[in-house]
């Protein structure tokens, strides 16, 4: 017994003395997945309901059509709102529900195998690419913002970011990103906010 | 008896663990500090831009004396009322079919209210219309030679020839300029000049700020109106003239 303990202690690599390396963000990830997933789910659900209302009555003014720039109606009526032949929020309802459930499972102490995390990674990678395409479309092609869609943008980015960092843990290249995780996230968000600010500057400048 | 070797190893691993923990804390602290700095820098820059935009001299967005967002000093007036009491401002896109449909109506109103109502035209090319911005540039380039109205008419009268085509219509517009007998060297230069595009974008930015979402959008004495017919339009103008 003693001998084995000594062996174990001596055998630990100096760089990782804390024992078997723990996955990063053990406390953050479960909550992020649960709360982020739930927010995304809520936004996608509201968008789907608004879309149905809009289909039923083309004159319907969605609850988030506030002014010329913040206008769901003009965004929801575009072809970009149903890229795959059906309304985008349907993807969100399915995807965010899964993310929420995964978060809840982690909170309950689940220790998923690697393939589960890779599955989550695949879904979130698709989501983050899609979201950035939608950001581009919204800003530069449609020229309007839809608040519920922006909630989806805002949760998808951190979900993707932290799940990716978790899955890349142990890789040397990912280490600085894991250490300065919130710097990257802040720059990411500020870049999107900056683009929105610049794009709709004439409008924002009339508000002050 | 415990070997001293074992004790040393245990102590070393404890020290290493403590060291790793303090390094982790240091990294965490630095991460938060840098994040806060980045956010603060962003807020400062945005704040500075806002302040400069508000009080800075000659900010592009500032509305100079004697002009408004609706009618700038450089806005094209098709005709001016002697008393300046009633002004109709139209934000238009030369490729928009609805604008083309309103064009004869506006012409009729202009004839009816010549000298009584000011008609102002503002550019509002819509991104999804392939040649709308080109058309606006062609008109603005003609305007530099004092031929705004002629080119404006030409665009709407011939809209079917070039509209909705999704291929560059530069050659067609060049033809119109030639047919109007413009100084072609000057026209070409203005057509390609980034300043021409800026001039158009400035109109569109004013439109966006005023809440213009589509074209044509009409403002009657600063109020957005949506006349569905000539009679409705006429009634609105008559009311403004009487009021």
UniProtKB/TrEMBL annotation, chain A:
<comment type="similarity">
    <text>Belongs to the VKOR family.</text>
</comment>
<dbReference type="InterPro" id="IPR012932">
    <property type="entry name" value="VKOR"/>
</dbReference>
<feature type="transmembrane region" description="Helical">
    <location>
        <begin position="115"/>
        <end position="135"/>
    </location>
</feature>
<dbReference type="GO" id="GO:0048038">
    <property type="term" value="F:quinone binding"/>
</dbReference>
<keyword id="KW-0812">Transmembrane</keyword>
<dbReference type="InterPro" id="IPR041714">
    <property type="entry name" value="VKOR_Actinobacteria"/>
</dbReference>
<feature type="transmembrane region" description="Helical">
    <location>
        <begin position="28"/>
        <end position="48"/>
    </location>
</feature>
<keyword id="KW-1015">Disulfide bond</keyword>
<keyword id="KW-0560">Oxidoreductase</keyword>
<dbReference type="Pfam" id="PF07884">
    <property type="entry name" value="VKOR"/>
</dbReference>
<feature type="transmembrane region" description="Helical">
    <location>
        <begin position="141"/>
        <end position="163"/>
    </location>
</feature>
<feature type="domain" description="Vitamin K epoxide reductase">
    <location>
        <begin position="26"/>
        <end position="167"/>
    </location>
</feature>
<feature type="transmembrane region" description="Helical">
    <location>
        <begin position="183"/>
        <end position="204"/>
    </location>
</feature>
<dbReference type="GO" id="GO:0016020">
    <property type="term" value="C:membrane"/>
</dbReference>
<keyword id="KW-1133">Transmembrane helix</keyword>
<keyword id="KW-0472">Membrane</keyword>
<dbReference type="GO" id="GO:0016491">
    <property type="term" value="F:oxidoreductase activity"/>
</dbReference>
<protein>
    <submittedName>
        <fullName>Vitamin K epoxide reductase family protein</fullName>
    </submittedName>
</protein>
<keyword id="KW-0676">Redox-active center</keyword>
<feature type="transmembrane region" description="Helical">
    <location>
        <begin position="90"/>
        <end position="108"/>
    </location>
</feature>
<keyword id="KW-0874">Quinone</keyword>
<dbReference type="InterPro" id="IPR038354">
    <property type="entry name" value="VKOR_sf"/>
</dbReference>
